[in-house]
Each structure stands twice: as C-alpha cells, then as structure tokens.
Amino acid sequence: MDQIKYTNLKTVVIKDKISKCEDIEELKEQVFPMIKTLQEQWAKKINEIIEESGLTKSKFAQLSGVSRMSVNKWCKGAIPKNRETFLRIGMVAGYDREKLNQLLQRYGRYPELYVKSLEDCVCIFVLEQKYGEKTLEKYNYILDKIKDNIFHDDNSLDVCTVIFDEKLSDIKDEDELEKFIIENSEIFLTAYHKFYSYVMMYIKANHLNLGASVNEFADGQMWSSSLRQCVSAIRQKKWYPTRNKIISLGLHLSMDLEQIDEMLQLAHMEPLCAKNIFESIVMFIVENASLNNMLDSDMEEFDPDELCRYAREVFEEFDLPEVESFISELPEMENDEW
Question: Percentage helix, strand, coil, to 5, in the chain?
Fold first, then answer.
C-alpha cells in the first residue's frame, strides 16, 4: 500500500475511533497512542528541512530573518507563532508551491497560498521564478515596492480564482507583477468576503434571536477581545484568522463538525485533522455535544454558551501547548454547573 493511501486509511480509522469514544479516558487510551503531538512532528520536519538545505543552523536563521536561538527552539519542537515565518522557512528551504502549502497547512495549521492575497501572490511569483538563496530577499523587496501603490476601487469586478491564478502564472518579471497587482488591487482587498459572509449567514439562520450582527452576538456571548479582533479583521478585509481562531469561532457559534470544516475550507485550510491531538479532542467534544443536543438551536431550551462551557470542561483535562491560549477564549463555568 503506498504512503498516501496508508495515511488516508489511518486518518479514517482514527476518526472512527474518536466518534466511538464515550468519555475522555477512552479518548486518551484508544486514540492518543496513535497520534504524535504537533510539536514532535514539527521538530522532526524542521530538522529535516535544515539538513536537506545544506545550510548550517546559523545560516538558515540569517536567511530566514530570525535568531539562531529561534532555530534551536524550532528544532526542539517550538512552533513558529505566525504564518509569515512559515512562508520565510519555505522560501529559504527552496520549496515549490506544493511543498510550501503542505508546510503551511500541516505544521503551521494555516491557509495554503491564496492567489488573491497580496502577500501570497508575491510569494507564488518568487517561488516560480526560482531565485535560489535570494528568494526571500526578492519577496520582501517586491512586496514593499507594491504595498504603497495599492488603492481602493469599489467598482472592481470579482474574478474566478482559477483564472486569476492562470494570469499570475503568465507574468514573467517584477514590473509585470506590480502592474497586475495594482490593476487588481480591489480583488486583493476583498479576498476574505466569502468567509465573513458565511459566518453572517450562519448567525442569521441559527441565532437571529441573539443578535442580527456578529457584534451583537459577540456582546451577548461575551467573546474575548482576541476573538472579536479576529472577526473584525476579517470584516475589514485585513487577514484570515489562524486555524485555532476559526475552530474557536465554530464552538462559539455551536457549529457541528461539517460546518466547522466548511469554515476552514472557505479560509483555504484543510478540514479538522483526526491525527492532530488537539483537533481530535475538538472532534470528540463536538461529536458528544451533538449526541446530547447541545447544537440544536431550534430547541426551546437551547443555550448558545453550552458547547463552549462543555469544551472548557473537557480541555481542562489535558496539558497541551495549544490548550492554554485556546481555553482563555471559552467562558468560565459557574460553580454549580457540570
């Protein structure tokens, strides 16, 4: 059996086991032994990247624009804290677009390169030009040169992403790229509209009595400032949130697994991954919540905070790096609850 088929089979098996777990202890005993932590996976990957690049850790750090100490931490399992760092690592490693997408999604848990995002568009261009060690330097130079020329034009028409991607692949030099981006500036500024529209549609369809807008709903649920800023940034067409922010948003909106996956896909991310320990817990939480009718907004006694409170109760049973920051956005449980 080839590696891809084996990997897909293993994922299906793990998802099936998660769906059959009746409590946390069973999840720990039946599922966790099948999964490596994200930190373990990342430590192995970054060490492989540096070895394959033929660079010393000091040189790799220099080209990536980080300290040698940061690279040492990565090699021990510390995961870079932002998407831009993963882009830099991929460019310094000499990755092509496909490999960089895998790096972003699998280890950073960020969206793949998206041609209608300004930074990603420039990144795709420099990857295709094969600048070698100067790839990251070229990326920074072109991006800085273009950013000042972006302007708003509310009359711009949307263009199919596939066609847009094809047009980018025909560009041969930096001047053509700059002209292309300026001519399509509004497309870059509106790239996040579909994601925000989906969130709004979901609130109106399922939680209209709790607020006609994201802000009203957030006020009622007392969302954290971090989660509010995340949604506000999407609305203002600034950036996509991180993967964990999208998952957190799904819990706050009492979404099922299919709906959370749809949000992730709209943000150009992979669906929830059963082979990731943190996400296996999320899947367990939502599956159990669904079985206990916590997600049914049509029920007379529906409580929009119930899923978040249940998620907090479950997460507090685990000592994982992702949990500490994630759990801070979930409401505190009252003393007489659960």
Answer: 65, 0, 35
